[in-house]
Specification:
This is Lipoprotein. By secondary structure, the chain is α+β, with helices and mostly antiparallel strands. The chain contains three helices and seven strands, in the order H-H-H-E-E-E-E-E-E-E. Strands 3-2-1-4-5-6-7 form a seven-stranded antiparallel sheet.
């Protein structure tokens, strides 16, 4: 009887493996639609898995807010400092952090595949 339960349990977890993997193509398409051109006045709160940045729009100089609902940008929170500029252009899958003397560029990756 234990073997039957173990077999059923193994089949269940094996069949659910694909359910737990993200749909990378769908996520990439969603991330292509976002845009953020912001200069940080202050760092965002890193208390959630999402980056919710407030600052000034790079082009207009007006106050703005950028939100990453896909958890892509928050991976790079350790690189962010006050005064940095985030550039994520609509239609692209590159997230950039511009510092005074350096530009850090990150491609979108999902399941070990780089999307462009």
């Amino acid at each position: 009887m234990k073997k039957i339960y173990l077999t059923i349990l193994l089949i269940f977890f094996y069949s659910c493996g694909d359910v737990l993997k993200p749909n990378c193509d769908e996520s990439a398409n969603s991330n292509r639609e976002t845009e953020c051109l912001i200069i940080f006045d202050k760092l965002p709160a890193f208390s959630t898995p999402y980056l919710n940045a407030k600052g000034k729009n790079l082009l207009t100089g007006k106050e703005c807010e950028c939100e990453d609902i896909g958890r892509w940008w928050i991976q790079y929170k350790e690189y962010l400092k006050k005064g940095d500029t985030i550039i994520k252009k609509k239609g692209e899958l590159i997230f950039s952090i511009h510092k005074k003397d350096t530009v850090l560029r990150f491609n979108y990756e999902c399941n070990d595949k780089v999307y462009k």
